[in-house]
């Protein structure tokens, strides 16, 4: 039964992080930096030739991004201050395109690449 669930998940067209996620690498990341610094780092990561920031709301801590490179995807980055100098980043990626072998691994790879880049720029914190 677990294998069957894994096969269906592979073809899922969305992937998101959460505070308590089944997959440890997809848990929310926390940084020991101010909200403004994290928000700017996330924006900086998504300013490139293959990304386009569709919309952003600094008040709500959300950035909507469209990935123009194949497979095209829509990402939402949520940046929230949990306490002073302690900021959380959650990401959600989705696509409408069919991907040979399933879209979920590509979406997960995109999220992990962002977390990895943010980890190089800022110090991670515990929950």
Number of strands: 7
Question: Stretches where pLDDT falls below 50 for ≥5 residues?
Answer: none
The biggest beta sheet is recorded as: 7 strands, antiparallel
- Give the DSSP E fraction (strand runs of 2 or more residues): 25-35%
Span of the ends, CA to CA: 33 Å
Radius of gyration: 15 Å
CATH class annotation: Alpha Beta
CATH topology: TATA-Binding Protein
Question: Into how many domains do the coordinates divide?
Answer: 1
Helix content: 25-40%
Overall residue-averaged pLDDT value? 91
Structural class: alpha+beta
Q: What's the SSE pattern? A: HEEHEEEEHE
Could you explain the architecture of this structure?
This is Cytosolic protein. It is a single chain. This protein has 127 residues and is an alpha+beta fold. The chain has a single domain, classed as TATA-Binding Protein (2-Layer Sandwich). It has 3 helices and 7 strands. Strands 1, 2, 3, 4, 5, 6 and 7 form a 7-stranded antiparallel β-sheet that branches. A hairpin with a 2-residue loop joins strand 5 (73-83) and strand 6. The radius of gyration is 15 Å and the shape is globular.
List the helices and strands and how they pair.
Blueprint: H1 2-10, E1 14-16, E2 29-31, H2 35-45, E3 51-57, E4 62-67, E5 73-83, E6 86-94, H3 104-121, E7 124-125
Antiparallel strand pairs: 1-6, 2-6, 2-7, 3-4, 4-5, 5-6
Helix pairs in contact: 2-3
């Amino acid at each position: 039964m677990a294998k069957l669930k894994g096969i269906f998940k592979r073809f899922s067209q969305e992937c998101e992080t959460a505070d308590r996620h089944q997959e440890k690498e997809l848990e929310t990341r926390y940084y020991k930096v101010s909200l403004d610094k994290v928000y700017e780092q996330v924006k900086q990561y998504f300013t490139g030739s293959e990304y386009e920031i569709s919309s952003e709301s600094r008040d709500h801590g959300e950035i909507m991004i469209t990935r123009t490179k194949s497979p095209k995807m829509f990402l939402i980055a949520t940046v929230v201050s949990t306490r002073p100098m302690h900021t959380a980043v959650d990401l959600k990626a989705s696509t409408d395109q069919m991907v040979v072998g399933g879209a979920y691994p590509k979406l997960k790879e995109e999220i992990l690449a962002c977390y990895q880049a943010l980890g190089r720029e800022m110090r991670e914190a515990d929950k």
